[in-house]
Structure formats: structure tokens, C-alpha cells
């Protein structure tokens, strides 16, 4: 068993976040499962985790909204007073699916506010403590859609491309300080992202596309059918286990970890690893000169 670590997980009320919270707690880690409204809309998930805590698991449920600076800063400051955060798992996210043109500006902002700015807020809140200690790990949940674009996923892919760039830059800048920023890229896995996928709001644009607009429902239906078949490769527990593997791995960790059917990232990691290490090596003198 590895040394227990204190791990904060965002979006832990459902899906991969909830599975990851349970799996890491089962492995003996101290888990802080954060979510919006744990005593309201997410009361069932919060109650389940609290029951596990009462049974002996080291799980704490905390309220945090990644779209709010005040909420993120207050939650993480309160946690840091009692225990240093060793690992941040940026899991909270939304998956808009539909005609890209038909998403309004407000809808695009809302997606970016969760999928990109949520990571910016939480990372900035935990990093001062990690830098002071000279250690830490940021694990951010991206997607296979963070490396490609497909029809009806334009807004989602854009948000994942943006967060991948942000997290990769952190990877280089933080490594000389003993902190790692890594990405997990799941392909399609059976969670409720399909049933909760925001549809585009501009009905006039949707109508202008005619039958082509039905691609959203066909695509989501295709994914749901695949999940219903019960293929082990689409089991969301695989992602939770991959995250645990990264948490417990002795560094250096790979920048990208792919989970699921699309394993092409292994070739990407192999091709880019020398360049990544060279960048980190070049940054070390910059930090050393500043000390």
C-alpha cells in the first residue's frame, strides 16, 4: 500500500468523480469529495459518501462550485487549514452535444466556465500550498475529444482543447518545483454525461439545418447503445482506477493517460516525451536563478 494522500476531487456527486472518490477511499486515501449543493440537489450522493465515512472510510463531503471564485477559494482555504492537499483531481465537467452554430454565446461561456475556468480556479487555489511544500499533483480529466474534433461536439472539443493547453503548460512550469500536472483522456465511458448533455438553445439555427440537426440524437443514441452493451472497455470504473494509478505512481508521471478503446496517446507520449523533458530541463536554471 502506498502512503495515504489527501485528495480533493471536484464534481464528485456523480459519474467518474463519485467512482473515483469511492475507489481512492477504498485504497486508504483521505478523500475530500466536493460538489454543488450537497444538502439539496446532490443530497443522495452526499448521503451515500457520508455513510461510507461513518463505516470507516476517510471521506469528507464539501460544498464547492467550480464556477464561483468565492466558493472555490473559501472551500480550499478551509480544507488547507486542517490538512495540506496533496492531489487535486479536476473532474467537474459538462458535455454539450449538438450543432455547433446553434449554441448561443451564453451557452459556450457556461461550458468554458466549467470545463476550463473551473480548472483555472481550483488549480490557482491549491498551487500556492503545493509550491510552498515543493510537492503536489494535479490530475485533470480531459477526453479523447481533447485531441480531435468531431461533428456535434464542437463546443465540448473546444473546451477540452483549451484545458489541455492550460494543463500542459502547467506541466512544464511546475515540474521544476516538484509538482506535476497531468491529463487523463477517457474515450466513451458509461456515465450520465449522455443523459445530461446540454442541447443547443438557438432553435432557429437548429431548424435551418433540417434533418442534419438530428445528428445530435443519433450520436448520443449510438453512445448509449454502446454503453448498454456492457463492454468492459466502457466501464467508467476503468477511469477511476487509472486516476488511482497516477496518484500512487512514483514520478515522473506521463503527461497524458488514455483510458478506453482509443489508445493512440501512447504513440503521442512516446514521440513528445523528449521534447517535454527538454523544455523542463531548460526551465530549471530559470527557477534556480530566482531562488
List the helices and strands and how they pair.
Blueprint: E1 6-9, H1 15-26, E2 30-35, H2 43-54, E3 59-63, H3 69-82, E4 87-90, H4 105-115, H5 117-133, E5 136-141, H6 154-174, E6 179-186, H7 203-208, H8 215-228, H9 237-248, E7 256-259, H10 265-290
Helix pairs in contact: 1-9, 3-5, 4-6
Walk me through what this model shows.
The protein is of the alpha/beta class. It is built from 10 helices and 7 strands. The protein has a 7-stranded parallel sheet with strand order 3-2-1-4-5-6-7, sandwiched between helices. Strand 1, helix 1 and strand 2 (30-35) form a beta-alpha-beta unit.
Major sheet:
7 strands, parallel
**Shape verdict:** globular
As residue ranges, the low-confidence spans are: none
Overall pLDDT confidence = 86
Strand/helix succession: EHEHEHEHHEHEHHHEH
Observed structural traits:
seven-stranded parallel beta sheet; globular; 291 residues; 7 strands; alpha/beta
In short:
This protein is α/β, with parallel strands linked by helices.
Amino acid at each position: 500500500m502506498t502512503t495515504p494522500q489527501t485528495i480533493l476531487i471536484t464534481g464528485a456527486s456523480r459519474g467518474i468523480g463519485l467512482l473515483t472518490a469511492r475507489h481512492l477511499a477504498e485504497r486508504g486515501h483521505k478523500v475530500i469529495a466536493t460538489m454543488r449543493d450537497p444538502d439539496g440537489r446532490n443530497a443522495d450522493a452526499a448521503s451515500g459518501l457520508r455513510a461510507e465515512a461513518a463505516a470507516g472510510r476517510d471521506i469528507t463531503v464539501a460544498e464547492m462550485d467550480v464556477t464561483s471564485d468565492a466558493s472555490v477559494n473559501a472551500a480550499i482555504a478551509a480544507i488547507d487549514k486542517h490538512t495540506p492537499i496533496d492531489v487535486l483531481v479536476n473532474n467537474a465537467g459538462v458535455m454539450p452535444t449538438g450543432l455547433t452554430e446553434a449554441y448561443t454565446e451564453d451557452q459556450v461561456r457556461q461550458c468554458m466556465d466549467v470545463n476550463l475556468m473551473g480548472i483555472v480556479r481550483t488549480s490557482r487555489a491549491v498551487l500556492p500550498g503545493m509550491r510552498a511544500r515543493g510537492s503536489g499533483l494535479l490530475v485533470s480529466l480531459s477526453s479523447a475529444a481533447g485531441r480531435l474534433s468531431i461533428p456535434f461536439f464542437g463546443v465540448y472539443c473546444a473546451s477540452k482543447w483549451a484545458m489541455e493547453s492550460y494543463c500542459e503548460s502547467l506541466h512544464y512550469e511546475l515540474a521544476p518545483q516538484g509538482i506535476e500536472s497531468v491529463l487523463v483522456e477517457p474515450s466513451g465511458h458509461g456515465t450520465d454525461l449522455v443523459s445530461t448533455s446540454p442541447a443547443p438553445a438557438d432553435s432557429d439555427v437548429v431548424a435551418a439545418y433540417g434533418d442534419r440537426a438530428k445528428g445530435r440524437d443519433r450520436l448520443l443514441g449510438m453512445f448509449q447503445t454502446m454503453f448498454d452493451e456492457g463492454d468492459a472497455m466502457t466501464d467508467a470504473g476503468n477511469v477511476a482506477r487509472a486516476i488511482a494509478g497516477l496518484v500512487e505512481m512514483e514520478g515522473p508521471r506521463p503527461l497524458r493517460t488514455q483510458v478506453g478503446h482509443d489508445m493512440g496517446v501512447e504513440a503521442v507520449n512516446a514521440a513528445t516525451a523528449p521534447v517535454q523533458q527538454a523544455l523542463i530541463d531548460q526551465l530549471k536554471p530559470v527557477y534556480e536563478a530566482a531562488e
